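Section 3.1: Structural characterization of target chains.
Under the original work plan, the team committed to producing a structural model for every single-chain target entering the pipeline before any wet-lab resources were allocated. The record below documents one such target. The sequence was received from the expression subgroup and is listed exactly as submitted; it comprises 140 residues.
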Amino acid sequence: MNVRSFQLSDYSAVTALLQDVLTEECYEQTMEAFARQLSWDSELVLVAAENSSIVGMIIGTIDNNKGYYYRIAVDPLHQRKGIGKALIQSLRVRFEQRNVTKIMITADEHNEPVLPLYESLGYAANDFFRSFQKLSIVAG
């Protein structure tokens, strides 16, 4: 498995993955945020590829020296294999390279099921950012 920056050629596979993994409402919100983040800073959108197939992705953003994990998705057939952790850790490295002062996890109703994954990597409740703002407002 290889974690790397999103490439335009990944678009169809990533949108199919998101559509498969996320609820319809979450998918719509995520696609809006995904498009915005690609226009702002595509280096904070990572994919996990295995045998040339996209099996996971994560969207991050930086605002005011704070890094935010926005959305993570892993193909159901590839869950519980460390892909989510690898995506989170790879994005953390990018945040650290950019000298962010704090890393937060966006905790909305759609992310609640994956918060234990972040906790398993050492993040605590005070690292969860709960807001009704969408990524379009938070990031800049």
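The first helix runs from residue 11 to 21.
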